[in-house]
Design a protein that fits this description.
Elements: E1 3-5, H1 7-11, H2 15-20, E2 21-25, H3 29-34, E3 41-42, H4 45-51, E4 60-64, H5 70-80, E5 88-92, H6 95-101
Parallel strand pairs: 1-5, 2-3, 2-4, 4-5
Length: about 100
Amino acid sequence: MVDEIDPDDLASLSDGERRETRIVDIRDRRAFDRGHIPGSECIPFPELSTRITELSGASRVVTVCPHGIASQQAAQLIGSYADAQDARVESLRGGLEAWGRE
């Protein structure tokens, strides 16, 4: 089971918590460029396994996708990576669709 964070909880993170949180949008670059959560970074899901080392040392990672389904798989993959096992890894519940409603 993958931990999830509600959009309102992500939005209400303090500045310090926000700086320490890596928000990983797993959509392709074109979708990301059309709109994304401020401060997020684009690592498309097909590239995640080859770019996962970019998340080494993160204390918290939140994965994001359109509806919060694929991001659960991404969070599971990141959480299984040895260098991320100490990180808090979560999926954004309801994805960008829910984020837009908040």
